[in-house]
Amino acid sequence: MKKRKLICIVCPRGCEIDVTMSDHGEITGIEGNSCKRGETYARAECTHPVRILTTTVRCEDGRLLPVRSSCGIPKERLFDCMEELRSVTAAAGAMIGDTVVRNILGTGADIVVSGNAGA
Amino acid sequence: MRRFECRLVIVGGGPAGMSAAVAAYEAGERDILILEREHTLGGILTQCIHNGFGLHRFGEELTGPEYAYRYEKSVKELGIKYYTDCTVTGISSDRTVSAVSAEEGMFKIQAGAVIVATGCRERPRGALNIPGTRPSGVYTAGTAQKFVNIKGYMPGKEIVILGSGDIGLIMARRMTLEGATVRAVLEIMPYSSGLARNIEQCLNDYGIPLYLSHTVSEIHGKERIEGVSVVRVDENRRPVPGGEMYIPCDTLLLSCGLIPENELASGGLAMCDVTTGGCIVDQDRESSAEGIFFCGNVLHVHDLVDYVSEEAAIAGRAAAAFARGDKRGDVNISVHFDKNIRYCVPQKITSLKDTDIYFRVKDVHRGATVCVNVGGRVVSEQKKIRLAPGEMETVHITERMLAENTGDITVSVIPSGV
Ligand code: SF4
Q1: According to CATH, what is the number of the domain B124-256?
Q2: Whose CA, among A90, B175, B328, B347, lies 20 to 30 Å from B218?
Q3: Cα separation of B49 and B150, whole Å?
Q4: Could you tell me the fold of the domain covering B330-418?
Q5: Which class does domain B1-120+258-328 fall in?
Q6: B184: closest CA among B118, B236, B228, B237?
Q7: What is the pLDDT of residues B167-198, one digit of tens each?
Q8: Tens of pLDDT along A14-69?
Q9: How close is the Cα of B60 to the center of ligand 1, in Å?
Q10: According to CATH, where is 2.60.40 located in chain B?
């Protein structure tokens, strides 16, 4: 049996979650989460952790636009996605909600404009 | 100089100002004007491009700009007027607001009611007394955030962060993703002031070390910072031998707390609370200056923007009622607190109605009881699993508690086992 301590990052409360796993890596117990989302997080974290990526991309019209991934990206692919986004330019006039990259590096996540400001 | 009248003037177009405006509009006020210093609405949220906002308020996790956009959209759809690039230089007790904008120079507005929602700023280096030279490369975390997220350039490559406030943690991750190396985050206290989730997802995810009970004892470098000397400190924050380190770096970011940007009031307009750094207000967030309200981080620094919006809505509704000339409460109840509590907001109650009192404790407590007492009688007791200085708590006061008891309110934290 293995034990893992996690801190849930789903909401600001930051619950400490204890996960017990069998020797084959099967999850046998999840404790300490205050809500269902914590359990989902703990499962993902112990099998394949993902993170929302937030960064900026240049726009053809010169603005620097904030962007986010539409869903979690596997943790080990975050730097690859950052690299990919360095060579991406958003179309002139891109606005909040517009997709800049579809299914980035096959991760299943879209990169979406998250704000209109920018210098 | 132009002079005009407006029923409700709101100073600041960030999350507090916009939420107050929308709430005032919903309460029936139509003559509203927001004055914003920057070029766009949104306040500090426009540079907080990370996610983590709005779970409480909107039930989903948004980035800073997305959160701001929801309010900005409402402001625009409702046709609420706003001026950007406009700085308020003074407010007088008769509610004359003096402002200056690039477009029309100086002007004055005679307001029916005023809401001040100017937010907070970071504690600068000058207030921290770090010995050493004065090279370039020392910034507050928020300044670095503006460089990276708004201007698009990196302040440096080898980073040390002093203070483990949330902005510092967020910037540790942001700079790492952009290719910088964050060598260490140093925290003088034995615990971090940032959220546990940010320690996890901003430091642990990237293997960035957090040194608790450590601080910078000297800054090195002539033109540009070259490194910092680090010491370990005891519980009285005095250096102890044996914990010295030298960390080379080209950038030092400071994330050592936020202070309300309360200059409009601290010049004598309204009475201030020395602990919060903001004004003393009643349940409606009205200050000692009649018809002048304060809300959001200018009043006291909040943990979450969601709570800022919530508080600002209270001020917005109340300011609309004031501008309309509604009948006002006539009680005068003070809110006191015991030695385990750092501050309470509001500090007084002037009207008998349901009210939440926000408070912050001084130290971490486990299993403590939060007790509320009105006029010497205990009206509520609540056991708390954990209380921490970084987490704002609330107690709910009902109209009935106030109607059935006469006298002041006292909030106390009774540690377990006492
Ligand atoms: S378990 Fe639920 S309440 Fe606890 S941090 Fe996760 S999402 Fe928040």
Answers
A1: 3.50.50.60
A2: B175
A3: 9
A4: Immunoglobulin-like (2.60.40)
A5: alpha beta
A6: B228
A7: 999 999 999 999 999 999 999 998 888 888 99
A8: 899 999 998 888 889 999 999 999 999 999 999 999 999 999 999 998 889 999 99
A9: 13
A10: 330-418
